Amino acid sequence: MDLDLMINSLPKLLSATLTTLKLLSLSLVFGLIIGLIFAIMRLNKNKFISNFSYTFSYIFRGTPLLVQIFIIYFGLGQIEYLRSTILWSVLKEPYWCAIIAFSLNTGAYTSEILRSAFQTIKPGLIEAGKSLGISSKIIFYKIQIPIAIKQSLAAYGNEIILMLKGTSLASTVTLMDLTGVAKYIISTTFKPIEVFIVAGSIYLFLTFLVHNFIKFTEKKMGTN
Amino acid sequence: MELLYFGSKGWGDELFAAFLMTIAVSITAMLIGILFSIIFTPLKLSNKKIFNFIANCYTTVIRGVPELLVIYLFFFGGTGAVMFVASIFGYNDYIEINAFITGSFAIGIISGAYSTEVFRGAIQSIDRGQFEACKALGFKKYVYFFKVIIPQMLRLAIPNLSNVWQITLKDTSLISVTGLVEIMRQSYIAAGSTRDPLFFYSFAALLYLILTFLSMKILNKLEKNYNRGF
Predict the structure, then answer these.
(1) What integer best gives the mean pLDDT of chain B?
(2) At residue B8, does pLDDT exceed 80?
(3) Are the beta carbons of B208 and A182 separated by less than 8 Å?
(4) Residue A219 has what pLDDT?
(5) Domain containing B128 — which CATH number?
(6) Which of A1-15, A204-218, B83-97, B141-155 is the least confident region?
(7) Which of A64, A75, A166 minimises the CB distance to B202?
């Protein structure tokens, strides 16, 4: 055990944790929006729209995240037309490519979580709202959404943890996140176990925080 | 399409071999995972606190740390660990471990943590009365375990195990960082030498979709088979 290396690598790994957290929070925000849109599309009565949403989530859940990042980072740059548009200023940055891939991936999973939450809402609640003469817009925002959020909290907490682990793939497209820096230190010092212990503890601590945050929110909303 | 020709002109045969390699790694990893869960599930359910602690450490750490980090640990640390063990037995030459073994071991340990949780949940949801009924009927311990507990547990575990299989299958793409030529690595090589990454990575995505789709169909059949009578 090389304790000096563990102590010396800690500041570097901690500053890389910031990158990981930035990637995580941005992709979660975008992913939630994407997920909500696709969940609503999935519940649409129009077969075409709901099938489109199903195909989207099926493709993103059925392929590894690594493939998705590589397609967006290496693949999209190949299209000449894209290079001339304003989109290119976003797509040439590995940082934004990673965020796009993560957002789409977590969006696909989130849409499934939200869809099942919407579907388990008792129809009686919506009928009660209708019989009171509440407009369907307000029923959606004030009845359906709050109940769906409550019911999907636990599953969404798991998704946050999965995404936290997923951000480690950003290191494959040259980003120096926690795993990227850990790999760099390992390959320069050849001390994999020490670095793994430090980086792993940081990840475990973050997982622990997310887990407790979700538990706390669940308690506050009174789901259990 | 020319890029997919078999033979020296295209990448068809290479990609097909890589496709088979992904299947081989996934199956090996899944089996290693089940082996690990056979060891750790009894520890999780044991009455001894120390055994519980060991098993909980394993599942919590592995499920809380990114897969890529675990793979790096094995990739960079595996050779050292094996050489250390070998040196105890007096063998001091350099040992190179096969990328297939390192990779499937790393993924196997990850999938083992998930299947341990699945088996634990399945055994715990078997009715307590069953244990007591077996005791009351005077069954021998192994009869009651293999004839009563295991069949019921499998029925409950198979839907979740198929989720673990899907996760394992997708995790094998991460082994490409260690240089094992599976779908992802082969696409990387092909994309590099033809300068056509969009096509090859999309094709890789298609191959993974085929794999997940087929395994879902097969596992659903298995699930139905185990569910008859319910």
Answers:
(1) 89
(2) no
(3) no
(4) 87
(5) 1.10.3720.10
(6) B83-97
(7) A75
Q: Which of A62, A172, A190 sits opposite B212 (nearest CB)?
A: A62
The DSSP secondary structure of A25-79, one letter per residue, reads HHHHHHHHHHHHHHHHHHT-S-HHHHHHHHHHHHHHHHS-HHHHHHIIIIIGGG-
Q: B198–A192: do the CB atoms touch at under 8 Å?
A: no
Judged by CB atoms closer than 8 Å, whether chains meet at B173 and A66 is answered as: yes
Q: How many residues does chain A have?
A: 224
By C-alpha distance, the chain B residue nearest A59 is: B209
Q: Which amino acid is at A147?
A: I
Cross-chain Cβ contact B205/A161 below 8 Å: no
- Burial degree of B230 (CB within 10 A; 0-12, 13-18, 19+): exposed
- Give the CA dihedral A75, A76, A81, A82, nearest 10 degrees: -160
Helix (H) or strand (E) holding B43: helix B12-45
Domain membership flag for residue B4? no
Inside any domain, residue B2: no
Q: How many CA atoms are closer than 13 Å to the CA of A137, on its beta-carbon side?
A: 0
Q: What is the pLDDT of residues B118-150, one digit of tens each?
A: 999 999 888 888 888 888 888 888 888 888 888
Q: Is residue B1 part of a domain?
A: no
Q: Which tens digit of pLDDT belongs to each residue from B173-222? A: 999 988 899 999 999 999 988 888 999 999 999 999 999 999 999 999 98
Nearest chain A CA: its distance from B128 CA (Å): 25
Q: Closest residue of A to B216, CA-based?
A: A62
Cα-to-chain-centroid distance, residue A118: 20
Are B197 and A65 a contacting pair at CB < 8 A?
no
Whether residue B66 lies within 8 A of chain A, CB to CB, comes out as yes
Number of folded domains that form chain B: 1
pLDDT band, residue B5 (cuts 50/70/90): confident
Domain containing B222: what range? Answer: 12-227
Six token digits for residue B81: 């660990």
Q: Which domain holds residue A118?
A: 3-221
Contact A71 B205 (CB under 8 A): yes
Model pTM score? 0.89
- Please judge whether A59 and B205 are an interchain contact, meaning their C-beta atoms are less than 8 angstroms apart: yes
CATH number where A179 lies: 1.10.3720.10
A82 and chain B in contact, CB less than 8 A: no
ipTM, 2 dp: 0.87
Identify the pLDDT of residue B32.
Answer: 96
